[in-house]
Amino acid sequence: MSTLTEAKPVTLTAKDFATDQEVRWCPGCGDYSILAQVQKIMPAMGIPKENIVIISGIGCSSRFPYYMNTYGMHSIHGRATAIASGLKASRPELSVWIVSGDGDSLSIGGNHTMHMLRRNFDVNMLMFNNQIYGLTKGQYSPTSERQKVTKSTPYGSIDHPFNPLALAMGADATFLARSMDRDPKHLQAMLTRSYQHKGASFLDIYQNCNIFNDGAFEIFTEKGSKPEEVLFLEHGRPLLFGAAQNKGIKLEGLRPIIVELGGGVTADDLWIHDEKDFYKAQILVRMFDDPRSGPHFPRPFGVFYESERTCYEDMMQMQIEEAIMTKGPGDLDKLLRGREVWEIAG
């Protein structure tokens, strides 16, 4: 007589998340690295592939769902955040990921991005930031620096660029982080932290477009310059940088300054990073490299800020349950008729 046995949990690998579709990005594009790191961290999440959904907008990055062996949707320009919000509201048990570019999410989709963040849906937003429009062949984007010469700005852009993390901070995002395509281990760590956060996570990923904006982030990725130009944020650790880790950031009031260790200055005198500190996070997201506006600071990478706030889909479900308990099942016909009636005199 045969007996039933319990099914053993299936151990997934990165290959299980790859599809049979040919990856069609330009050779050398930073998107390849981001795809590889996402596929590597997915097995450790322990979520069945059928419970993961990746939603994209329009752009080079938005081909992502085709290359992930999960559910997905290649949606509308700028509206990936809105569609993902609707999905999470109706299917809160799913792990929902948003893949978008800087043009897709900060230009035509800027409004949707802000509202998704402030509502705090439990979704993970990966913004591929290459500071250019790649799919439409090289126009300047909302994150392009001033005086950027492109096909749409032959005399240089006069727009003031968006600071993505400052924008997300202003929208009350509950998780903000930055990473880069050419640091796989760091990117994997930030992807994992994004997933572990309960609420809307916003991960700004510096991604090289080697066709239309090659080398935009070279100063942060090359071995010769990276130690002096990159400041890795670690919770509870001092803000140290430099090839010999002999430089740091110190606060004088609310103004950050660069100091060198030695001569009475130790790591204990430096700014200690606290991911929960809302006020210091405001300073960190503004530490941009602009030699015209002050001292040259290294660019921070890591988790800038994390806070706890009830997710939209949870509050919505609680509201529905409370309404049913107090008022009973809803009446759609009554709702459609509304509360206001006009009488037309004969």
Can you give a write-up of this model?
There is one protein chain. The protein is of the alpha/beta class and 346 residues long. Helices cover 29% and strands 17% of the residues. It has 11 helices and 11 strands. The protein has helices at 31-45, 80-90, 102-108, 110-119, 164-170, 184-196, 218-221, 226-229, 278-284, 312-327, 332-337; strands spanning 52-56, 71-74, 95-101, 123-129, 175-180, 201-206, 230-232, 240-241, 247-252, 255-260, 299-306. An 8-stranded mixed beta sheet has the order 2-1-3-4-6-5-11-7, with helices on both faces. A 3-stranded antiparallel beta sheet has the order 8-9-10. A hairpin with a 5-residue loop joins strand 8 (240-241) and strand 9. The radius of gyration is 23 Å and the shape is globular. The termini are far apart. 36% of the residues are buried.
Task: Set out the fold topology.
Layout: H1 31-45, E1 52-56, E2 71-74, H2 80-90, E3 95-101, H3 102-108, H4 110-119, E4 123-129, H5 164-170, E5 175-180, H6 184-196, E6 201-206, H7 218-221, H8 226-229, E7 230-232, E8 240-241, E9 247-252, E10 255-260, H9 278-284, E11 299-306, H10 312-327, H11 332-337
Parallel strand pairs: 1-2, 1-3, 3-4, 4-6, 5-6, 7-11
Antiparallel strand pairs: 5-11, 8-9, 9-10
